[in-house]
Amino acid sequence: MNAYLRAAFSLLLSLVLITGCSKDEQSEAYNDVGDYERTMREQDIAIQQYISANNLRLEHDFSGIYYKIENPGDQRAFMNLNSVPTLSYVRRNLKDSILDASFGSTNFDGRALKDHIVGWQVGLQKIGKGGKIFLIIPSPLGFGNIAVGNIIPANTVLVCDMELVDFK
C-alpha cells in the first residue's frame, strides 16, 4: 500500500477512535492500522456479497461506506459536522435483522453530527434537509470492535435507512 493510502487510513482510524468510542473504550479499539485494514478488507467482501444478493446499485465512497441517495433533499441546505441532525432511521445488520430504529424523528438529545459514528458523518453530509439515504457502513466506520450494550454486537456492519428530517 502506498504511503498516501497508509496515511489516509491512519487518519481515518484516528477519527473512528475519537468519534466512535468514549475515552475508556478507545484503548480496546483497533490495535493498529493493520487490524483496521484487515477488518475493512474482510467486511468489504461480505458487503459486496450482500449488495450482489440483493441486486443493489450503490456508490462506494473513498471512506469505505456504500450508499444510495434515494432523495437528495434540499440542495441548498446541507449539514456540517457541527450541525445537530434530526433523523428518522432504521439500523440493521447484513442479515437484515433490525438492531435499532428511531420510531419517528430524533435529534439524539442535541448531539452534533461530529459526535455520531463516522459512517453517519460521511453519509448524512451527502444529502440536504429532507433527504433520504441508504448506507452500508463497515464496522470500523461504525462502532468498531466495541459492542453497544446488547443492541449492536462488536464488528457489526451496519445497514441504515436514514431520513434527514431537519438540522440546526
UniProtKB/TrEMBL annotation:
Entry GO MF terms: peptidyl-prolyl cis-trans isomerase activity
Enzyme Commission code(s) on record: 5.2.1.8
Catalysed reactions, semicolon-separated: [protein]-peptidylproline (omega=180) = [protein]-peptidylproline (omega=0)
Keyword Magnesium: no
Segments crossing the lipid bilayer: none
Pfam families: FKBP_C
Keywords per UniProt: Isomerase, Rotamase
Keyword Transmembrane belongs to the record: no
Enzyme class, spelled out: isomerase
InterPro entries linked to this entry: PPIase_dom_sf, PPIase_FKBP_dom
Entries under PROSITE patterns matching the protein: FKBP_PPIASE (PS50059), PROKAR_LIPOPROTEIN (PS51257)
Domain called PPIase FKBP-type: residue spans: 82-168
Protein family according to the UniProt entry: Belongs to the FKBP-type PPIase family.
UniProt protein name: Peptidyl-prolyl cis-trans isomerase
Species in which this protein is naturally found: Chitinophaga pinensis (strain ATCC 43595 / DSM 2588 / LMG 13176 / NBRC 15968 / NCIMB 11800 / UQM 2034)
Lineage: Bacteria, Pseudomonadati, Bacteroidota, Chitinophagia, Chitinophagales
